[in-house]
Amino acid sequence: MSKKQKDIFEVFFRRKPAMILVALNKDMRSKYGSVLAKEVDCTYSHAVKILQEMEKAKLVLFEKQGRIKTIKLTETGQRIAEHIGKIKDML
């Protein structure tokens, strides 16, 4: 993505939350918060804060497997992520 495309994308969307949704949608597997934070270049605590807001909006689900917590898109979250990805590609 060129700088100009990146700048216009950020006019419409907050970069980190939008990219978290796109990253979750990329390979459709549940991911760890730390992996997502690295993929979108933000701190783990910031990623968790964003993900908690997304959980309240029913865009993501936290799945606990023992001590491990993974994040997965809901159906609504997946549809939104697909649209954000398409818009990003158009810009």
Q: Can you offer a commentary on this structure?
A:
The protein is of the alpha+beta class and 91 residues long. The chain has a single domain, classed as Arc Repressor Mutant, subunit A. It has helices spanning 3-12, 15-27, 33-39, 44-56, 75-90, and strands spanning 31-32, 60-65, 68-73. It has a three-stranded antiparallel sheet with strand order 1-3-2. Strand 2 and strand 3 form a beta hairpin. Helix 2 (15-27) crosses helix 5 (75-90) and helix 3 packs across helix 4. The mean pLDDT is 87.
Distance between the termini: 9 Å
Q: What form results from the Cα inertia axes?
A: globular
Order of helices and strands: HHEHHEEH
Looking at the structure, the CATH topology is Arc Repressor Mutant, subunit A
Amount of beta strand: 15-25%
Strand order of the largest sheet: 1-3-2
| CATH level-four homologous superfamily name | Winged helix-like DNA-binding domain superfamily/Winged helix DNA-binding domain
Helicity, as a percent range: 55-70%
Q: What is the CATH architecture term?
A: Orthogonal Bundle
Mean pLDDT across residues:
87
Low-confidence stretches: none
How many individual β-strands? 3
CATH class: Mainly Alpha
Helices and strands in order:
Layout (H helix, E strand, L loop, with lengths): L2 H10 L2 H13 L3 E2 H7 L4 H13 L3 E6 L2 E6 L1 H16 L1
Antiparallel strand pairs: 1-3, 2-3
